[in-house]
Every structure is written in structure tokens, then in C-alpha cells.
Amino acid sequence: MIEDFDVTSDWHVAAPYPFLRRLRAASPVFKSEHLGAYVLTRHADVRAAYADPRSFSSKGSLTISRSLTRETREKLGEHGSFLSSFVANVDPPDHTRLRRSVSRAFTPRAVAALEQRFRRLNEDLLDRVAPRGHADFVSDLGHEPSIKLTARFIGVPEADEAFVQSHVKDWFQLFLSPQPPERQLELAGSFLDYLDYVDRLVDARAKDPRDDFTSLMTALIGAELTHREVVELISTILLGGNDTVPNQLGNTVLRLLREGVWPVPDALLANASEECMRVDGASLGSFRYAARELTLHGVTIPAGALVLLSTDSAGHDESVFPDPDRFVIDRPNAAEHLVFGYGIHFCVGAALARLQLRPALAVLGPRLPGLRLVPGQDIAYRRSIVGRGLSRLAVEW
Length: 397
Ligand code: HEM
Known about the structure:
Bound molecules: protoporphyrin IX containing FE
Radius of gyration: 21 Å
Shape: globular
Order of helices and strands: HHEEHEHHHHEHHHHHHHEEEEHHEE
CATH architecture of the domain at 61-282 and 320-372: Orthogonal Bundle
Largest sheet: 5 strands, mixed
Structural class: alpha+beta
Oligomer: single chain
Strand content: 5-15%
């Protein structure tokens, strides 16, 4: 049997490294029948593809899932391709315009102003959870501060946070992991409710602007952005903020506890957090379409073919990171990972993500210095094509 990725198996997310190493060595452009995509696995190739949007197009690349049934597609209607004008899903010149608008909200000053709030959110949560002596890191500790921070940033009222959170989860499941047909229909219903909610939020801010991202973007409708673009931006940024950062934090804490590096000394926080992103990135890669026929390492990728840029593999490329499967807390080039992508689509929220990961560790370490994994547990990941996140993580202190 030919080896391939397998999204329905645990190893696909949990431990793909021996497989990826074989691909980098022997088959750096791998045609995956299972993913329906060509997979680039070497760091240099992944970075070069990100840097060449004319050959590797983002247009429609997020408009998954390829595994939706006809009934689900019918239910979603025009929203089946809902993300079609999201900034990560378009090429220049649309991308240039959208990115300019989004970047207005992510100025270094605006991002830095959120750090104190984020620390406070972590402290408040620990006041409640610390006396218990044990927790599921994923549901009890990892998500709440990021969800609350993102909600404040976007302008979601506190009372609606739980609603948004549960719908964002459904969205992820629907589009990014394979689901049985009945479940797809349920998730599609939830997704449509979520879009309605964001639509109403945009209307509310148009009438009564506040000091938040939604108001800032809504004010650009008609001038730089369309209504649909704004709704897509807001709904997907909520997704980015609510899920990717907590996933990365969970992966990070698991790695640090397994390596026996807890609490992380202040001087090493920044590098430790980059090294954790390199070895256990919350993003596994990005999809692109070949804009024309491309030949790489002797393999011809036909025009229009789907291509996965495997940042997970790039982060373990031995030609860039010696002894790549080993966690090295002070690895000098840890930050050369590609977990935030590269080039024109480089994650616009990267500064905001880093601003959460480091302070979360800085607060958690001193508050829970005896944090450890509950022995004997199975470490389980959510099954996903593009993301790595734990389903649960039992910890005690
Ligand atoms: C550890 C957390 C995060 C990871 C691993 C991550 C990963 C990524 C990656 C790989 C891309 C590039 C996609 C591509 O090239 O196709 C990206 C783009 C993007 N990210 Fe993030 N992200 C994170 C956090 C965030 C946060 C907190 C936000 C916003 C609050 C955010 C908003 C975005 C947006 C809007 C884009 C599209 C940028 C563009 O296309 O120009 N991300 N992210």
C-alpha cells in the first residue's frame, strides 16, 4: 500500500513526522490522493510558493470543504462559497485593497494596548480555577482569555461570547474536518445562524459606531470595502482569534510539560514560544491553486491543481533546523518556522497571537508553578486538514 496522509487517522495530526521526513527526502512534491492535492514539504519550496502568488494562487483556496454532500451544499446556498472574498482567499489586486483596510486595525499600538487586558483576563480566570487543583487545560484554561480578548477587539458584547464560541467551533468542524452527512446538515444550520449574527452586528455598528474593529471596518463600507467583505472579515477574524491561539497555547503547554520546562524562565519565554510553534504548530499548512502548469523537482503540477504548502513539514526540515524533532528551547533560528505563513498573506494577527502566547505563559508559570500532566491520559487531537489542536488535556497542580 502506498503511504498517504489520512485525515481520519490520529497520526495525521499527532505524529506525521517520520512520514513527512520520507517525503522531504524522496518525494518533495507529493501527490496525495487522500487530500486531493500536491503537497510541498521542504522549507525552501514552501516559502518560495508563499512568496509567489502569481504561480500559487489563493483565490478560492479556503473555499472548502471538498467533502460536503450535495444536501449540505444546497442548504448553504450562496454561503457554500461564503469565504470567497475573505482576505486570505483572494489574490492581488483585491488582496492588496483588503489587506490595507484590515491592517488599519492591527497597528503595533492597537495590538500592544491589548496586552494588559489579556494578562488581566488570565489572572481573573486563574482566580477562579487555581483553587481546584486540576483542570482540562483546553476547556478550562486555554480558550477563555483569547475568546474574551478577541470579542472585545471585534466588539462582540460579553453576553454573546458563548454563542459566538459554539458557532465558531461548528464552523471549524464543518469546513475543516470530515463529517458524516447528518452532522454536516446540523453544522451548516449553525453556520448560517452565525452569519446572521455577524450581519446584525455590522448593521448595529453602522448605526451606532463604537471603538472596535467592527465599527472601524463598517465605516469603510462603500469607500474601500463591501458589506459582504466586512461580514466575512469579522466572522473569520473571530475564527482566527477564538481558535488558533488557544490551540497553539494547548500545544505549547503540552510540549513544555513533556519536556519538563515549567515554569519557563522569563528570559526564554519568547524563544520557547517560537520553538513550540515550530515543533507543534497550530497551523499545518495553507492551500493554493497552481495558477499555471508548474514543474518542481521533476514533478509537473497541472494548472488548476490544488497544492498544500506543508508548514508542519517545513518546521521539521533538517536542512534548516538541525535535529528537527528535538525541542531546543534556545534554538537560534526557531522563529524561521512558517506557522504564520509568509509573503503577502503572512498572518495579519501574528503580533496579536504572539502577544497572547508569551503573556499567557508568563502569567500561568508563576501562578501554577507545579503544573503537570495527569499521568496515563491519551493525548487526542481534533482531526483536521489544516489545524492542530488538542481535544482535551488533563492537568493538575
Ligand atoms: C497562533 C495563532 C495563529 C496562527 C498559527 C495563524 C496562522 C495563519 C496562517 C498560516 C496564515 C496564512 C494563510 C495563507 O497564506 O493562506 C494566516 C493568515 C491570517 N490570519 Fe492568522 N494565525 C493565527 C492567529 C491569528 C489571529 C489572532 C488573527 C486575528 C485576530 C489572525 C488573522 C489572520 C488573517 C486575517 C489572515 C489573512 C491575511 C491575508 O490573507 O493577508 N490570525 N494566519
